[in-house]
Amino acid sequence: GHVQLLPPQNVTLLSKDFAMILTWAPGEGSPPDVTYTVRYESQDRLDKWMKVPDCKNIPRSFCNLTCALPNLYVKVRARVKALWGRSQSPWVKSQFKDYYSDVELAPPVLSLNVRENSIHVSVSFPLPTCVENLTWKYDLNLWEAGSEDKKKYEGYFRKDTVTINTTALRGNYCFSARALYESINLKHSEFSQPVCVLLEHKG
């Protein structure tokens, strides 16, 4: 006979590290080999539930929707149901969110290229491919290890490298950056873990 398959719980659409992700927990008493299917609808086309190619009959309890979304500026919500054998649970819906105003940023990753009298600092962001063309920026901080006095370089585009003249710098210097995004208000990530380099005078 049919098993009464209980629906997924805690269905939440959240933004984390530049991505829009639907998460849920298995319904009570779910069999271990239960799978899930996810669909979404956008506020400009209500009641038209679209399939998410990578989230059909999946064993995991999350679905990355970022690159399935047709429009990053329109609110969407998602729904998920459990499947097991020939049994299906009812669908459970999330709340509405849109990428543009709800995106949560991750700290960028720094790479330092130390030259004789300068350092070239470039940052990369852990971005989903579909949002790469949005205008992400970053702030960079530079300070001498142990000092509270930070020199700030603000509002660089992520494609830009910051070149720092190190002629006058001696000792251990640290760098850290954060991602910025201008939506309805200005958002920023946490600062990245500091990367420190020892600058010695060539003499």
TrEMBL record:
One Pfam assignment: Interfer-bind
Domain Fibronectin type-III: 7-102
Cross-referenced Gene3D superfamilies: Immunoglobulins
InterPro entries linked: FN3_dom, FN3_sf, Ig-like_fold, Interferon/interleukin_rcp_dom, Type-II_Cytokine-TF_Rcpt
Gene Ontology cellular-component terms listed: plasma membrane
Lineage: superkingdom: Eukaryota
SUPFAM superfamilies the UniProt entry points to: Fibronectin type III
GO MF, one example: cytokine receptor activity
PANTHER family to which the protein is assigned, alphabetical: INTERFERON LAMBDA RECEPTOR 1 (PTHR20859:SF55), INTERFERON/INTERLEUKIN RECEPTOR (PTHR20859)
Protein name, entry field: INLR1 protein
Organism, as annotated: Leucopsar rothschildi
